[in-house]
């Protein structure tokens, strides 16, 4: 397949069908790029090479395997050090506490050769951004340059994710690039934070930056710096995070160039080619062990924030031999609200999901993309046309993930977890202090996983293919005019199962200054997380202003809301779904959950058929005879 052109800006004359799109389909398949050096020998599984008696080398494959492993670890270590640099030097809470960023080393052809332990869902989007930079500067790269891009229609995914690429050279030859992506706190636009779900076109969302020189031969582009600085609400945080990115890219460049000096230009190029081949072969080998066939699944987003119409995400998984295809034909057309997902982001999520299902330790490089094909209709929710808004596309990513896992659960019913929460609630609270100094709080609330074939879902953790964390309460209250009144798990708020889903949690934000705007991106009020193998669905999310007060107001899942001093924004995340029949859960596990205040005794009885006793002094137990009787009655009732 040829590379698609959908990452480039398209004309706006084409009309978008009001029905699910079944017309022109865009395929993304990462075939082998042209190379300066081709590997002379295909690398097999390296464990086969290492188990020779006494470590005797019968041929040179052991040497190659060790050399590749050392290079892989060295490159990944450089990318990890880049990530640590951002954590240590960033100014925004989103970068240094939530850790919404990624780092990587990229070849001169634009392929990822190593990624830091950051965001899996960023990794597969990097080649699109690198490709956009190469299209403009391929023959004009100079030492000391740094390139910037964030345009979703020219390599990016949404405007807050800003990519910096620094070229790496040795003896005047371009080796590749060091790359740092940071989700910036603000990019201008009509709503603070750059994540407004109720924008209707990308021109409302902030600064669109095509591939440009951020630094030119070592000198900062002062014109661009001032343009950005004057268009964002919190320039100290934005420009501070840029400095962190520049520092990380510089560290990566030095590390990349050191590798070239250590191995030599030709040997390094050859080894990187082989490393990508190795990742490809591991991926194909793992895919071959999966059954051939087709499986499909549809999950839904409740709405786009403008209508009550659900947004279906349909995916069909086709596995044949050593390849996997994810076909999104039948998914909703692009929507008015800003929750659409660019093709690069849809592809990135797809690759990450397939990699996680394979259960093999595959190197984090572009080699594992090659056996995976993505088909996404143009003008659809998962491949929108300009000027579709995409600021809040993180919600789409989570729901694409759950649709993919739903399809894989039909292929591999004993390996896939039930549906997690399926979104990270985006909360932005922004306004001005009395002296008109702006403040901007941005957080993505991470939650819980669904129950699995052999364990309960994790409570309070990052979502699959993210690597984020919630902002500590102490940091929020120290840096923002906000008090966190409540933060904790919600008893009974999860899907029951032999292995239960992770619990929902609540967070209450009290505004301490005169007024502010609340921008909310949430979901799962109508379409709940799905259970598997008889497990119950998860529980709905809830957003309110001023709960248990006369002015209590239930909020829509998406939108912009006004806050005044003393208002409390109350949010309960969705609870994750369960796996397996709840009546098969060990009574002792149910008792532990009651003792830990994760479940109430009433819920244990209603959902699990477990009769929990309480002696009145806080000592709980199980009435085993009553439990056996109740469970028998519940099974009989279910089969009637």
Distance between the termini: 54 Å
Q: Characterize the largest beta sheet: strand count, sense, and whether it forms a barrel.
A: 7 strands, antiparallel
Number of helices: 14
Query: Strands of the largest sheet, in order across it?
Result: 3-2-6-5-4-7-8
Let me know the number of strands: 23
Residues in helix, %: 25-40%
Helix-and-strand structural type = alpha+beta
- 3D shape: globular
Q: Are there runs of 5+ residues with pLDDT below 50, and where? A: 1-24, 32-63
Rg (CA only): 25 Å
Query: Could you tell me the strand content as a percent range?
Result: 15-25%
Mean pLDDT: 89
In summary, what is this structure?
The chain is of the alpha+beta class and 640 residues long.
Sum up the structure in keywords.
single chain; 640 residues; alpha+beta; seven-stranded antiparallel beta sheet; five-stranded mixed beta sheet; 23 strands; globular; disordered N terminus
Task: Please tell me about this protein's structure.
- The protein is an alpha+beta fold.
- Among the domains are: 60-282, no CATH class; 417-582, no CATH class; 586-639, no CATH class.
- Helix content is 30%, strand content 22%.
- The protein has 14 helices and 23 strands.
- Strands 3-2-6-5-4-7-8 form a 7-stranded antiparallel β-sheet, with helices on both faces.
- Helix 2 crosses helix 8 (265-288).
- The longest helix has 29 residues, at 61-89.
Topology record:
Layout: E1 25-29, H1 46-50, H2 61-89, H3 93-96, E2 101-107, E3 112-115, H4 120-123, H5 126-137, E4 146-149, E5 161-170, E6 173-183, E7 212-216, E8 219-220, H6 222-231, H7 235-263, H8 265-288, E9 293-301, E10 311-320, E11 323-327, H9 343-358, E12 372-377, H10 394-411, E13 425-432, E14 438-445, H11 473-479, E15 482-489, E16 505-511, E17 515-521, E18 542-545, E19 553-554, E20 558-564, E21 568-572, H12 587-595, H13 601-608, E22 612-614, E23 620-622, H14 624-639
Parallel strand pairs: 11-12
Antiparallel strand pairs: 1-12, 2-3, 2-6, 4-5, 4-7, 5-6, 7-8, 9-10, 10-11, 13-14, 13-17, 15-16, 16-21, 17-20, 18-19, 18-21, 22-23
């Amino acid at each position: 397949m040829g590379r698609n052109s959908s990452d480039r800006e398209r004309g706006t004359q084409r009309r978008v069908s009001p029905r699910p799109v079944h017309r022109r389909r865009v395929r993304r398949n990462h075939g082998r790029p042209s190379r300066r050096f081709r590997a002379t020998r295909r690398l097999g599984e390296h464990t086969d090479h290492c188990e020779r008696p006494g470590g005797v080398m019968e041929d040179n494959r052991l040497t190659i395997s060790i050399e590749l492993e050392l290079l892989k670890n060295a490159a990944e270590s450089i990318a990890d050090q880049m990530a640590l640099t951002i954590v240590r030097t960033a100014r925004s809470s989103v970068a240094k506490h939530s850790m919404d960023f990624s780092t990587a080393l990229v070849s001169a052809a634009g392929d990822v050769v190593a990624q830091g332990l950051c965001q899996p869902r960023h990794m597969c989007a990097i080649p699109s951004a690198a490709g956009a930079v190469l299209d403009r500067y391929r023959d004009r790269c100079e030492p000391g340059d740094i390139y910037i891009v964030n345009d979703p229609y020219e390599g990016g995914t949404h405007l807050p994710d800003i990519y910096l690429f620094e070229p790496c050279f040795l003896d005047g030859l371009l080796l590749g690039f060091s790359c740092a992506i940071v989700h910036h706190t603000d990019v201008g636009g009509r709503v603070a934070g750059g994540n407004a779900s109720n924008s209707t076109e990308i021109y409302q969302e902030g600064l669109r930056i095509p591939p440009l020189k951020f630094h030119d031969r070592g000198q900062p582009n002062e014109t661009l710096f001032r343009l950005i600085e004057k268009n964002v609400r919190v320039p100290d945080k934005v420009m501070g995070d840029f400095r962190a990115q520049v520092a990380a890219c510089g560290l990566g460049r030095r590390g990349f160039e050191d590798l070239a000096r250590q191995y030599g230009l030709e040997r390094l190029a050859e080894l990187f080619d082989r490393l990508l081949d190795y990742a490809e072969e591991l991926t194909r080998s793992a895919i071959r062990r999966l059954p051939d066939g087709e499986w499909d699944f549809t999950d839904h987003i409740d709405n786009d924030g403008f209508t009550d119409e659900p947004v279906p995400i349909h995916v069909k998984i086709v596995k044949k031999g050593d390849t996997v295809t994810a076909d999104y034909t039948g998914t909703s057309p692009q929507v008015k609200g800003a929750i659409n997902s660019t093709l690069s982001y849809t592809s990135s999520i797809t690759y990450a999901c397939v990699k996680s299902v394979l259960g093999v330790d595959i190197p984090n490089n572009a080699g594992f993309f090659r056996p995976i094909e993505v088909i996404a209709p143009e003008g659809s929710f998962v491949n929108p046309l300009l000027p579709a808004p995409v600021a809040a596309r993180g919600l789409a990513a989570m729901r694409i993930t759950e649709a993919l896992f739903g399809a894989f659960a039909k292929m591999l019913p004993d390996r896939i977890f039930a549906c997690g929460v399926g979104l990270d609630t985006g909360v932005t609270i922004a306004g001005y202090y009395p002296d008109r100094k702006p403040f901007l709080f941005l957080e993505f609330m991470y939650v819980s996983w669904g129950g699995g074939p052999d364990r309960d879902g994790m409570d309070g953790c990052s979502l699959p293919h993210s690597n984020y964390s919630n902002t500590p309460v102490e940091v929020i209250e120290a840096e923002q005019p906000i008090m966190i009144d409540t933060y904790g798990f919600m008893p009974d708020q999860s899907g029951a199962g032999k292995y239960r889903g992770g619990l929902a949690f609540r967070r209450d934000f009290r505004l301490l200054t005169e007024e502010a705007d609340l921008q909310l991106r949430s979901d799962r009020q109508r379409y709940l997380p799905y259970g598997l193998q008889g497990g119950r669905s998860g529980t709905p999310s809830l957003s309110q202003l001023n709960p248990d007060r006369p002015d209590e107001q239930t909020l829509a899942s998406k939108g912009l809301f006004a806050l005044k001093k003393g208002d409390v924004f109350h949010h309960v995340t969705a609870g994750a779904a369960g796996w397996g029949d709840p009546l098969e859960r060990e009574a002792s596990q149910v008792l532990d959950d009651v003792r830990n205040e994760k479940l109430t005794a009433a819920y244990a009885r209603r959902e699990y058929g477990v009769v929990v006793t309480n002696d009145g002094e806080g000592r709980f137990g199980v009435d085993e005879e009553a439990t056996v009787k109740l469970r028998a009655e519940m099974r009989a009732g279910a089969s009637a």
